[in-house]
Amino acid sequence: MLAMSGRVTMLGISRWAGIGGTYRTMLRFFHTVIPWATLFWLFFRKHLFRANEVYLLAGDEVVVSKAGKKTYGLDRFFSSLVNKPISGLSFMVNLSHHQLLDFRLLNPDSGIIDLKAYYRGFRYVREMLKMLPEIPEPILLTQIFAKLTALGRVHPVSTGVEPS
Question: What is the Cα–Cα distance from 93 to 99, expressed in whole angstroms?
Fold first, then answer.
């Protein structure tokens, strides 16, 4: 992995690369076609896949600009920061896997459906609280959260709070 400050160009990368990293080598590298879909699928199958799980693809696209008039292997992507398509790289960041790992600390048998049910219930409670004239007592509020975040779950709740 290479992290550079300032303007990133192939000439700049070749200067940072050291022995064997000539400008010509950078041209060949960026001209190489990489089958990203296949690469991501193989990474998922090797490191993340579990046979009995249900997977939800959720992500956030990030666009990083790249200097240069013509950069091989890259394309133009819409950047909401500059409100126009720019030449650069686009990345998808998957958050559901990390959220599920944190969720399983308190709910070890839970899957992605349980995580979705929890967040859906949490959103319902948050919207309901906006409509109430005053916020309920903390004990009642905890029971409401436990009850609504348990709806739609496949596995039993293990939050420590019993919904009444």
Answer: 12
pLDDT digits (tens, 9 = 90+) for 57-92: 655 566 666 666 665 556 677 777 778 877 776 656
The number of residues in the chain equals 164
Write out residues in the chain with pLDDT < 70, as ranges. Answer: 1-2, 54-75, 89-95, 157-164
Q: What is the pTM of this model?
A: 0.42
100 token code pair? 């599920």
Give yes or no for a contact between 153 and 163, defined as CB atoms under 8 angstroms apart.
Answer: no
One-character DSSP codes across the chain: -----S---HHHHHHHH-TT--HHHHHHHHHS---HHHHHHHHIIIII--TT------EEEEEEE--SS--TT-EEEEETTTTEEEEEEEEEEE-HHHHHHHHHHH-TT--HHHHHHHHHHHHHHHHHHHHSSSPPPHHHHHHHHHHHHHTT-SSPP-SS----
| Sheet-wide strand order for 75-79 | 59-65, 84-94, 75-79
